[in-house]
Amino acid sequence: MRTRFAPSPTGYLHVGGLRTALSAYLLAKQSKGTFIVRIEDTDRERSVPDAVENMLTALHWAGIHPDEGVMLEKGLITQKGTRGPYIQSERLALYRHHAQELLKSGHAYVCFCSPKRLEKMRTEQEARKQAPMYDRTCIKLKDEEVQRRITSGEPHVLRLKVPRNEIIAYEDEIRGPMSFQGHTIDDQVLLKSDGFPTYHLAHVVDDHFMDISVVIRGEEWLSSTPKHLLLFQYLGWKPPRYAHVPLLLNKDRTKLSKRQSAVSVEEYVQKGYLPEAFVNFIALLGWNPGTTQEIFTLEDLIEAFSLDRMQKAGAIFDTEKLDWLQGQWIRRLPAAEFAKRVLPVVAEKYPPASRDKDFTAKTRLIQERVTFFSEAPALLSFFYEEPTPSVDLLANAKQKVSHEILPKILEELSNTLDGVLTDEWTESVLSETLKKLAEGNGWKIGQVLWPLRAALTGLPYSPGAYEVAAALGKDVTIARLEAARRLITQ
Ligand code: GLU
Fold first, then answer.
1. Is 391-489 in the same CATH topology as 265-331?
2. Ramachandran region of residue 186, left (φ > 0), alpha (ψ -120 to 50) or beta?
3. Who contacts 299 (Cβ-Cβ below 8 Å, separation ≥6)?
4. How much is the average pLDDT of 350-375?
5. For ligand 1, is residue 7 a contact (CB within 6 Å)?
6. Cα separation of 169 and 178, whole Å?
7. How far is the CA of 26 from the centre of ligand 1 (A)?
8. By Cβ atoms counted within 10 A, which residue in 33, 84, 158, 443 is the most buried?
């Protein structure tokens, strides 16, 4: 099995592109086949510098590594494999050769129509409510005239001669039997006037010479597929199988647009999504495993993926689902892995974190509470700087900690905790001690835990009081309780 992802370098990796790439990758991997990346850069006007590198970086981030073709190696764009080059602009002679073959066999013809004439033709067709289609003016030209005009340097293109009376049919791996009437298919330009092939010619030649078994691509290419099948037929080659994956839709079922969601993978990287969560989300767009399982690693996906579980209808790009998956994935990371990945984000705000031997013990307290790493520095702030609680934070009506009772609670907390031996300073001892303190004074447990937690963290929302006190240690805990007492008597 050989599959390929063949992006055009027009900017960034679109989320739809990642979905196509992922499907092709999974299919290749599950049969121990080869996943190829090819760059389709024959549209010079649309090519953007750095686009190839950006796309490869995004694929790499997602864990999708090409076996053959264009890839990043030590940060450099490299090509690997025996069927290269894998960048279309490096294969122009091959396309021209096959274009000539099609001309010789009578399946293509030269067209001299100017862009201006074509534009006028299209406008007239639209006015008549006809589908825009080349009117075949040049198909009638005699060979001698064609030669003369070419020799005199007149700009021209090469077009595919589509058989008007044929039906072109094939079985799509996702959409089932498909058929197209020849008279509805435009005589596609194959070679442009600048001598560059169009995508249609180039990718057919490449899919043949690169031995592609299944072409997986977006639904927008479905209507072009009959042209591609004709090209395979006229060049005497066996076509690959085709699978057209459904469109991605906004929640209101319109085509996914930048206005409603971020559409480049890079934007999701910047927002802090885990690659595992994002790939999990992308895999479930238009595909379901037929079970209730929702969390999939890349390995799971390699095992479970199949094209026949791909739906035909458009797939909703539901970012709420993405956020849910992100939370699931954050919680599933082993504590040490969570600490490792969150460290750069925390160390940027609090440089001492990178020298902190107890960093994992601290991040363990917040792993359940974050959805994005970017939330971590604020939640860990009290470990790296003195908290500055206010009186209004220390008191809390809901927890029945009135301003009147607060001094007494803080005093009792300070005295009682000072009595706990440093050696016994553990979550369970602290929990027992505080329970007794509350009972002894006729208070609810929340009445002691809230001011303690607030005094230690200065935050309205944080890990619990025992956990924080245990992690901070006895000296810091007592010092912060004393600071809170000074604050309320000011
Ligand atoms: N270069 C085309 C694109 O970027 C690829 C289509 C295909 O996979 O055949 O959409």
1. no
2. beta
3. none
4. 95
5. yes
6. 6
7. 18
8. 158
Q: Using one digit for the tens of pLDDT, what is the confidence trace for 43-70? A: 877 778 789 999 999 999 999 999 999 9
Place of tokens 């499907």: 23
Structure tokens at 466: 């025992």
Catalytic residue among 258, 408, 435, 444: 258
Asked if residue 168 has pLDDT above 90, the reply is: yes
- Cβ of 217 less than 6 Å from ligand 1: yes
- Does the pTM surpass 0.70? The reply is yes
Q: What is the CATH number of domain 91-245?
A: 3.90.800.10
228 C-beta closer than 6 A to ligand 1: no
Of 319, 245, 265, the C-alpha closest to 59 is 265
Give the count of alpha carbons within 13 A of 224, CB side only: 18
Rounded to the nearest angstrom, the distance between the alpha carbon of 100 and the centre of ligand 1 is 24
Ligand 1 within 6 A of CB of 6: yes
> How far out from the chain centre does Cα 245 lie?
16
Structure tokens at 53: 């590198």
Instruction: Report the nearest-CA residue for atom 8 of ligand 1.
Output: 217
The fold adopted by the segment(s) 265-331 is: Glutamyl-tRNA Synthetase; domain 2 (1.10.1160)
| Domain extent listing, the chain | 91-245, 265-331, 333-384, 391-489
DSSP notation for 178-233: EEEEGGGS---EEE-TTSPBPHHHHHHHHHHHTT-SEEEEEGGGGGGHHHHHHHHH
Long-range CB contacts for residues 384-387, cutoff 8 Å, separation at least 24: 384/349, 384/350, 384/352, 384/353, 385/350, 386/480, 386/483, 387/455, 387/456, 387/457, 387/458, 387/459, 387/480
Quote the tokens at residue 247.
């469109």
Whether 2 lines ligand 1, by a CB cut-off of 6 Å, is no
408: Cα separation from own chain's centroid: 54
Å from CA of 9 to ligand 1 middle: 10
| Domain 391-489 CATH (choose: 1.20.1560.10, 3.80.10.10, 1.10.10.350, 3.40.50.720) | 1.10.10.350
Q: Does the beta carbon of 40 sit less than 6 angstroms from any atom of ligand 1?
A: yes
In the annotation, is 444 catalytic? Answer: no
Task: Find the 203 Cα to ligand 1 centroid distance in Å.
Answer: 8
pLDDT at 259 over 80: no
Band of residue 489 on the pLDDT scale cut at 50, 70, 90: confident
Q: Could you please report the per-residue DSSP string of 52-90?
A: HHHHHHHHHHHT---SEEEEEETTEEEEESTT---BGGG
Closest ligand 1 atom to residue 217 Cα is: 8
3-class DSSP assignment, residue 151: helix
